[in-house]
Amino acid sequence: MAQKGILVVVSGFSGVGKGTLMKCLVERYSNYALSISATTRSPREGEVDGREYFFRTRDEFQTMINGGELIEYACYCENFYGTPQKYVEEQMEQGKDVILEIEIQGALNIKKKYPEALLLFVMPPSAAVLKERLEGRGTESPEVIDARLRRACEESEGIENYDFILVNDDLDVCVKQMHGLITDQRWRVNRNLDFINEIRTEIKAFSKGEV
Amino acid sequence: MAQKGILVVVSGFSGVGKGTLMKCLVERYSNYALSISATTRSPREGEVDGREYFFRTRDEFQTMINGGELIEYACYCENFYGTPQKYVEEQMEQGKDVILEIEIQGALNIKKKYPEALLLFVMPPSAAVLKERLEGRGTESPEVIDARLRRACEESEGIENYDFILVNDDLDVCVKQMHGLITDQRWRVNRNLDFINEIRTEIKAFSKGEV
């Protein structure tokens, strides 16, 4: 039963630990491919073009949009982010489960194009923990933290559109749970119609005494 | 996050090993309660009233229907089978995940009344294995085996209405998989709205500088 891979969208508040979660997932299990987004935002310290993101100018980004190269794109904190389609499709065809880390607007666009995509929203164990994590990172100004808190309010309005929440309290537990949720999808009835039809046809043959 | 239990419907071909699967599940994990069906069929050797089934006469069964005591009922091989509502609701309120082993007609009725119910269909690894198991039990006449094969054909037409298939090849693997599928449902967004709203309200308070 070689299956096409599963498309998984992961969203969650800034500071909730999505990056670490996905890094662990990919290191621990071999069935995943992380989609790399294109963005017009500036690289942070240590970020490498083609690893964390494809860093593009506004003009280059516009060319990708015009050329239909992006599955979805959205504007977040005045920068554009988008998902190049080619890599996602190739990996899924090879049976890899492809993880997209995108924000809510992009997630809903993905669900329209790929109704079978699994939408996961990573939650902090409490709002206080989220605030601590945002402040604790220490790399952002108070204005940026405030902007993220305001954005978190907006994003939290869309959680109902996701399939499952993941509570990132204990990282190890959360990684295992995420892996379980994704691999479960392989047993969805609509992903196994070939197998079901094969059994069905054979049972009919038995029932008619043909075998 | 005390949650109401999950309602799980398990169907599958006769001889596929549903009974053994559920017995293992209940022995191994403490979060399950098996619903006991009422039936008008005669007890098989070793079956006890109130353990395997509530064995009832046709008149008694009709009284339960009239009194609205059954969530669903259906006719299968000329006998009536039904699910008493009271036990199911009580167990779910206590947080137990309630398993109903019912056939397809009943399963679809459950889904209408409880749209969040999880519908699982147990498959044999192959049609040949199913035929062997049906013949190998040795307790049924060729006529009954033929009737089951014909019924299996009918039932297989409805598998598309289920959420997931379980392939019962290795019992231990199948039990673990079933447990995983069920417990994952606890993280469905629509089962965690209270928690989501709590976080949402607190983040809004932070964002407004109220805390």
Morphology of chain A: globular
**Annotated CATH topology of the domain at 7-34 and 97-207 in chain A:** Rossmann fold
Q: What oligomeric state best describes the polypeptide chains here?
A: homodimer
Instruction: Tell me the name of the CATH homologous superfamily of the domain at 7-34 and 97-207 in chain A.
Output: P-loop containing nucleotide triphosphate hydrolases
End-to-end distance of chain A: 24 Å
Average pLDDT across residues of chain A? Answer: 89
Which characteristics define this entry?
44% helix; four-stranded mixed β-sheet; 9 strands; alpha/beta; five-stranded parallel β-sheet; 8 helices; globular; homodimer
Topology:
2 copies of one chain form a homodimer.
Chain A: E1 7-12, H1 18-28, E2 32-34, E3 37-39, E4 53-55, H2 58-66, E5 70-76, E6 79-84, H3 85-93, E7 97-101, H4 104-113, E8 118-123, H5 127-136, H6 142-156, E9 164-167, H7 171-184, H8 193-207
Parallel strand pairs in A: 1-7, 1-8, 2-7, 3-4, 8-9
Antiparallel strand pairs in A: 3-6, 5-6
Helix pairs in contact in A: 1-7
Walkthrough of the structure:
2 copies of one chain form a homodimer. By secondary structure, the first copy, chain A, is α/β, with parallel strands linked by helices. Chain A has a domain at 7-34 and 97-207: Rossmann fold. The first copy, chain A, contains 8 helices and 9 strands. Chain A has helices spanning 18-28, 58-66, 85-93, 104-113, 127-136, 142-156, 171-184, 193-207, and strands at residues 7-12, 32-34, 37-39, 53-55, 70-76, 79-84, 97-101, 118-123, 164-167. A 5-stranded parallel sheet of chain A has the order 2-7-1-8-9, sandwiched between helices. In chain A, strands 4-3-6-5 form a 4-stranded mixed sheet. In chain A, helix 1 (18-28) packs across helix 7 (171-184). Chain A is globular, with a radius of gyration of 20 Å. The model of chain A has no long low-confidence stretch (mean pLDDT 89). Chain A binds chain B through residues 13, 121, 123-124, 126-128, 130-131, 146, 149-150, 152-153, 156-157, 159-160, 162-167, 177, 180-181, 184, 187-190, 192-193, 195-196, 198-200, 202-207, and chain B through 13, 121, 123-124, 126-128, 130-131, 146, 149-150, 152-153, 156-157, 159-160, 162-166, 177, 180-181, 184, 187-190, 192-193, 195-196, 198-200, 202-207.
